[in-house]
Specification:
It comes from Streptomyces olivochromogenes. This is Adenylate cyclase. Pfam families: NAD_binding_9. InterPro entries: FAD/NAD-bd_sf, HpyO/CreE_NAD-binding, L-asp_N-monooxygenase_NS-form. The protein is of the alpha/beta class. The chain has three domains: 247 residues, FAD/NAD(P)-binding domain (3-Layer(bba) Sandwich), CATH 3.50.50.60; 104 residues, FAD/NAD(P)-binding domain (3-Layer(bba) Sandwich), CATH 3.50.50; 153 residues, no CATH class. It is 36% helix and 15% strand. The protein has 16 helices and 19 strands. The chain has a six-stranded mixed sheet with strand order 3-2-1-7-19-18, covered by helices on one side. Strands 8-17-9-12-13 form a five-stranded parallel sheet. Strand 14 and strand 15 form a beta hairpin. It is globular, with a radius of gyration of 25 Å.
Length: 584
């Protein structure tokens, strides 16, 4: 019997793993024979999130030239580099295009086909278009992967979970809101992947409260406007009359920052500088552990500041007061207060100084007398963000983006650092395309989108939902519909996926934030004693070594690619040794 590997999840993460298996097999596994079983009800390559069967109105939030599924020399890994085309090269489109998700799904399907074709001839791939329900079997023996609707399990020498984004049970607040909505004939749409949500209950002309101002809201906005027949004439939105009125707010009260609209030129900041492997090693060596805000964030803040000021001083020296070499020496040696004083003396214009706290919470302490006044204020804020993010005179912003990618690559080694960092990263680095924010402004002027403010609070009372915000004290918005515009939290304990819940019950352990603990070196699932399971691996956003995404921007180190390579090599070495023992 040939060795068998089961990969649960055939989306971009599962495809990336197959690509790395193909790349590493000549060194680690050639000639032994292997069956790879892919288990996923959705198409291989695209998976659920990027499947081609979704609205063509939905875009990626990255330029086509910034999307690749292939490794390059910047990826630190033991396996070989196997270069390949970016999305824009493969599709022969302008690199600055924000491609729709259908096109990305086609690209991912092609990558999957190429990865399978690159496998050795005696490695076969079998796709099972169904769900995996549970994994059983002894630690030292073959595993059984039970599939929906099938009486017999797949037998596997190794199992890799590449599940992607997961559905989740409602938390206590969401259960209470859902129960209230059911009792009072209201509409409550809990956190979900927007393309899968049934939006038909959101009636034309009716107010809808929307909590969440990130990419899920952008998708919702598109589907309820253009998706219902509205259209744009330049900067003017022409309604179809079928749109609801969206009252949107969030913790920050502002949309994610626009994608940067210009290319990098010149020297890149030499990263990592203040938060690299040595700093991570020191944190991991601490006998009492570490606290993110106290022990990690100060180094991240210094790193991002270094990226910002390196760009400012080397490309825009006329806006600085001293030589870069002098600034760099003092910046490197100084503590936070000393660096703040240095920046104040060396960078005359406050707009050229990096203030991460102000970026994170731009409405803190800001108050408006009325909702109407706030609409004008937030439109001005979004217009200012668009202007800055599309002006290369503000290129230190792009340097900070590169700094964020560098930091994320280091943080993976620390495991679960809590939810704040991931939200902050997405808000600064993974926001919507500029054209989407321009559409948002047009919808605001047309009265289809209305802004609620920061720290949006929602209560269910008197037969309706009511929203309020500290940004506009004393004012409330009333509606019979509430949409939670965000993905479910990737927690093991509340995951609806039966396989993951069974693993948890069987001894897999979760972090305080609810993420699945895995070995940081190769992705093996850890038990409550900290032992890695010899035959079970996991990759993805529900683990405590989650990455920014399963694909990435070229030449930025690709943390997911590094993880895929490590897992592929560990799997191949295990299966090779298993085959050798069987032949002995």
């Amino acid at each position: 019997m040939k060795p068998s590997l089961v990969i649960v999840g055939a989306g971009p993460r599962g495809t990336g793993l197959i690509e790395r298996i193909a790349a590493n097999a000549p060194e680690l596994y050639a000639g032994s024979g292997l069956d790879i079983h892919l288990v996923d009800p959705h198409p291989p390559g695209a998976g659920r999130i990027w499947r081609e069967a979704q609205s063509p109105l939905l875009w990626m939030n990255s330029h086509a030239e910034d999307v690749t599924m292939f490794t390059d020399e910047t990826v630190v890994m033991d396996g070989p580099v196997r270069p390949g085309p970016t999305l824009h090269e493969w599709a022969a489109i302008d690199g600055r295009t924000f491609a729709d998700r259908q096109l990305q799904g086609a690209y991912l399907g092609w990558v999957h086909e190429q990865a399978v074709a690159a496998l050795p001839p005696d490695v076969a791939v079998h796709h099972h278009p169904c769900r995996a329900l549970r994994v059983s079997g002894p630690r030292e023996g073959r595993q059984q992967v039970w599939l929906e609707g099938r009486p017999r399990p797949l037998l596997a020498d190794l199992v890799v979970l590449a599940l992607g984004h997961l559905d989740a049970e409602l938390d206590e607040e969401q259960r209470e809101l859902a129960s209230y909505a059911h009792a009072h004939d209201l509409v409550h749409l809990p956190p979900d992947f927007t393309a899968d949500s049934d939006l038909s209950s959101l009636a034309a002309g009716e107010p809808v409260l929307v909590r969440g101002f990130g990419l899920a809201f952008v998708d919702l906005m598109v589907l309820l406007t253009e998706g219902r027949g509205g259209r744009y004439d330049g900067d003017t939105y022409l309604p179809s009359g079928r749109e609801p009125v969206l009252y949107v707010g969030s913790r920050r009260g502002v949309p994610y920052h626009s994608k940067i609209g210009y290319d990098w030129t010149g020297e890149r900041p030499p990263l990592p500088r203040f938060f690299g492997p040595a700093e991570v090693d020191a944190l991991l060596a601490r006998p009492d552990g570490f606290d993110f805000r106290r022990d990690v964030w100060p180094s991240i803040e210094k790193e991002l500041g270094f990226a910002h000021y390196h760009r400012l001083f080397t490309v825009h020296p006329e806006r600085t007061g001293i030589a870069w070499t002098d600034f760099e020496e003092k910046y490197a040696a100084g503590e936070a207060a000393e660096r703040e004083a240095l920046v104040a003396s060396a960078v005359p214009d406050p707009a050229d100084r990096l203030d991460l706290a102000a970026l994170d919470r731009p409405l803190d302490g800001v108050r408006y007398a009325s909702h109407e006044e706030f609409q004008d204020g937030l439109r001005a804020y979004v217009e200012g963000d668009l202007s800055r993010r599309h002006d290369p005179e503000n290129s230190p912003d792009l340097a900070v983006f590169l700094g964020l990618l560098s930091v994320y690559g280091q943080l993976i080694r620390l495991g679960d650092v809590g939810p704040w960092w991931h939200g902050f990263f997405s808000y600064l680095a993974s926001g919507p395309p500029g054209p989407r924010l321009r559409q948002m402004l047009a919808l605001s002027r047309a009265g289809v989108v209305r802004f609620v403010g920061a720290d949006m609070a929602v209560v269910a009372e008197d037969g309706v939902f009511r929203a309020s915000s500290v940004t506009v004290p004393g004012e409330t918005v009333e509606a019979r519909a509430l949409v939670e515009a965000r993905l479910p939290e990737p927690t093991v304990g509340r995951a609806l996926d039966p396989l993951l819940r069974e693993l948890h019950a069987d001894g897999a352990v979760e972090t305080p934030e609810g993420l699945l603990r895995v070995d940081r070196s190769d992705g093996r699932i850890l038990d409550r004693g900290g032992r890695p399971h010899p035959r079970r691996f996991a990759l993805g956003p529900y683990t405590d070594v989650r990455t920014p995404g399963a694909f990435t921007r070229p030449r930025t180190g690709g943390p997911a690619f590094r993880q895929n390579d490590a897992t592929a090599r560990a799997a191949l070495a295990f299966l090779r040794d298993l085959a050798c023992r069987a032949a002995a």
